[in-house]
Design brief:
- The structure holds 2 protein chains of 2 kinds.
- By secondary structure, chain A is of the alpha/beta class.
- In chain A, the strands form 2 sheets. Chain A has an 8-stranded mixed sheet with strand order 6-7-8-3-9-10-12-11, sandwiched between helices.
- Residues 1-6 and 326-330 of chain A have low confidence and may be disordered.
- In chain A, helix 4 packs across helix 5 (126-139) and helix 6 (156-168) packs parallel to helix 7 (186-203).
- Chain A is built from 12 helices and 12 strands.
- The longest helix of chain A has 18 residues, at 186-203.
- By secondary structure, chain B is of the alpha/beta class.
- Chain B has one domain (2-332): P-loop containing nucleotide triphosphate hydrolases (Rossmann fold, 3-Layer(aba) Sandwich).
- In chain B, the strands form 2 sheets. Chain B has an 8-stranded mixed sheet, sandwiched between helices. In chain B, strands 2-1-4-5 form a 4-stranded antiparallel sheet.
- In chain B, strand 9 (232-237) and strand 10 (240-246) form a beta hairpin.
- In chain B, helix 8 (165-179) packs parallel to helix 9 (195-211).
- The chains are: A alpha/beta, B alpha/beta.
- Chain A binds chain B through residues 48-49, 155-158, 185-191, 193-194, 197, 212-216, 218-220, 238-239, 242, 252-261, 263-264, 266-268, 274-275, 277-278, and chain B through 49-50, 164, 166-167, 194-200, 202, 221-225, 227-228, 251, 261-279, 281-282.
């Protein structure tokens, strides 16, 4: 990892695996995922529904443990449910959900919502607590008068800002953002995205930004990774990722985006048609998970799973088309 | 003469439609003086954020608006030369026969206890020429093939839960085909789908509407889809029409400050960073701003905006905008009170 290695890694995920038992059989939601996030980096994890991107996020925050592989946070193995993690570790890693309405208690005021993490993680009380609450609400750009309101009295974007404030309150260093703007309108989404960027720069935070919106990723994150059927297909620095997409699935995704102008149209790969649907993860295809939809599928793809290969510095692709160089290493 | 010719081309003509909802707290004044036209064979885009009244408008047209709580304050909806709000059975039947609606969530629009065969069979049985059982099955299979459904035979015997979201939406479109409607109202047909599936469904709708010369109203959050698939576009904000024009004109030269803000706020694939979005949030329909409803969020607001609702100002033959800041210069006011 040429350039990235020079920087400190905050989070390292390797060979991560998660299975769920269902009535139809074993569902492999995450089937061996490797990536690393640097300090003060925004890492974008993109995928369609059912690709396992949220499962990865859930394991990092400790909603459940994995079925193999490891998650290192600043070198320490944290692959276990949150109940078994230290308080300090829980403070360091925070989470923002997709639906701000559903993740705020309707019977608590904003003040109560923001006070809880401050009490739990920073042990504040009395005047110091009140001061910290006010500081938090102002940090996300809302006036102090909001503290006495209930969640239903404020708009969707403002609710999401409160959720972000709640995640920031314990003073974390890493935040998992699981589709933080998907439930919001475009004009509000822009505001939230900007706030997230501003906070990241100001506080030196690292984000794992989970989303299905490639256009948002393009404008927001430092490095981008694509997930399909529980595995990573391609990862690179965002600029490189969007200008030289290599994996056929990446190309298909990019080609599918409806865009607003001819100028953007130029960024869409033209060679790949969108066909088929994501297969049921209970019945994973053999070989490359994408071969059932891939227009460039070869015989080899149907039997042999491809391996992540570095094709240019920092640009990794998991596809037999680009694997010739590192075939031996595998 | 002109009046008659226009009426023949005009499939749908919504005139001065205002709709409110009666709720415990009072009246939600949602739609305000909407004028909306669809000509025969035309494809219309309807753009606006959640809660701007798009669905209320479509439901009124499709005659499925729940009254009460909704109250039609003013206005007429002319479909094929008949006012469908007159309450007569004949007009209701005309709408049910000739208009089909594709909803955002295909799960909610398909009865989970029936098979696809029974949905589609019901439609055919109620057409003028249902045909024999075998003929009906043949026509169902043809419709499913037209929407590129994998293994149509198997799908006919399936229940909605056994199909994926994209396949369910294909079933809904196939049902529109069986009915041979004049107007398709597509209310966010792809919002619940993944981007690769969205592309497939949009392409399907596009080919079908072009090939069969069907009129279509496409409501979508995906502005790019509206840009490539429609002839004319209406932009709505808080129950008002902000702007209307040919799609190319709206996207190349948006005139209303709201449209400008909306387009700027949309993240671009070319990567120009993130704009600030539009300050503030949608006003309450209980007590909307008395003048222009966008005024509290508008960066270009004038004094008059707070007091008086803007009329429609014509920028050119096909492009008009409801904004006081665009009044000066080349405009003439139309008769909107």
């Amino acid at each position: 990892m040429s350039e990235a290695a020079a920087r400190e890694k905050i989070l390292e995920v390797s060979r991560l695996r998660k299975e769920f038992q269902t009535r139809q059989g074993t569902l492999v939601a995450v089937a061996g995922v490797d990536f690393a996030i640097n300090e003060s980096e925004i890492y974008g994890l993109v995928g369609e529904s059912g690709s396992g991107k949220s499962t990865v996020g859930s394991m990092i925050v400790g909603m459940y443990g994995s079925n193999g592989g490891e998650i290192l946070f600043r070198g320490e193995d944290i692959d276990r449910p949150a109940a078994k993690r230290s308080k300090e570790l829980k403070r360091q890693i925070q989470l923002v959900f997709q639906d701000p309405g559903g993740s705020l208690n309707p019977r608590q005021t904003i003040r109560q919502i923001l006070a809880l993490p401050l009490k739990l993680h920073r042990g504040l009380s009395g005047a110091a607590l009140e001061e910290a609450v006010q500081e938090t609400v102002e940090k996300v750009g809302l006036p102090r008068s909001y503290l006495d309101k209930y969640p239903q009295a404020i708009g969707g974007g403002e609710k999401q800002l409160i959720c972000i404030g709640r995640a920031l309150a314990p003073d974390p260093s890493f935040i998992v953002l699981d589709e933080p703007t998907s439930a919001l309108d475009v004009s509000i989404q822009a505001k939230i995205s900007n706030k997230l960027l501003e906070l990241q720069e100001q506080l030196g935070l690292s984000y794992l930004f989970i989303t299905h919106n490639l256009c948002l990723v393009r404008n927001l994150v430092h490095r981008t990774a694509i997930m399909y059927l529980g595995q990573l297909c391609e990862t690179a620095v965002t600029e490189e990722f969007f200008t030289h997409p290599l994996h056929p699935y990446t190309q298909m995704l990019l080609a599918s985006i409806p865009v607003m102008s001819e100028r953007e149209e130029a960024y869409k790969p033209t060679e790949v048609e969108s066909v088929g649907e994501i297969p049921n993860p209970i019945h994973r295809p053999d070989g490359c998970g994408f071969h059932t939809r891939c227009p460039l599928c070869m015989d080899r793809c149907k039997t042999e799973p491809p391996v992540m290969t570095e094709v240019s510095p920092g640009h990794y692709v998991s596809c037999h088309l680009h694997a010739n160089i590192a075939a031996k290493e595998a | 003469m002109t009046e008659q010719v226009r009426d023949q081309q005009m499939l749908l003509d919504v005139k001065d439609l205002s709709i409110s909802y009666k709720v415990y707290e009072g009246m939600l004044r949602v739609l305000q003086h909407i004028d909306f036209r669809v000509e025969s064979g035309e494809r219309i885009g309807l753009v606006g954020e959640a809660g701007c009244g798009k669905t209320t408008l479509l439901k009124t047209i499709a005659h499925i608006l729940p009254i009460p709580p909704a109250v039609i304050e003013t206005g007429e909806v002319w479909f094929k030369g008949r006012d469908v709000l007159d309450g007569s059975k004949a007009s209701r039947r005309s709408i049910r026969r000739d208009v089909s609606m594709i909803l955002q969530d295909p799960t909610a629009s398909l009865n989970p206890t029936l098979t696809i065969r029974s949905f589609m069979g019901d439609i055919l049985k109620n057409t003028p020429h249902p045909g024999s059982r075998a003929e009906r099955k043949q026509r169902m299979l043809e419709a499913l093939e037209k929407v590129s459904m994998p293994s149509p035979e198997r799908v006919l015997g399936s229940y909605p839960v056994q199909l994926s979201g994209g396949m369910r939406q294909r079933v809904c479109i196939a049902m529109c085909l069986l009915k041979d409607v004049d107007l398709i109202l597509a209310d966010e047909p792809t919002t619940s789908l993944d981007v690769t599936i969205e592309k497939q469904i949009l392409e399907l709708l596009n080919t079908l509407s072009v090939e069969n010369r069907k009129s279509m109203v496409l409501v979508s959050h995906a502005l790019g889809a509206v840009r490539t698939m429609t002839d004319r576009t209406y932009v709505m904000y808080a129950g008002n029409l902000a702007e209307e024009g040919t799609t190319a004109e709206i996207f190349d030269h948006p005139a209303h400050p709201y449209t400008e803000g909306l387009f700027e706020a949309t993240p671009k694939l070319s990567g120009e960073g993130v704009s600030d979005g539009i300050a503030g949030e949608l006003p309450s329909y209980l007590d909307p701003p008395p003048g222009c409803r966008f005024m509290p969020r508008c960066p270009q607001a004038l004094g008059v905006c707070a007091e008086e609702r803007p009329g429609r100002f014509r920028l050119n033959e096909s492009h008009s905008v409801a904004c006081w800041a665009r009044e000066t210069g080349r405009v003439e006011e139309e008769g909107n009170p």
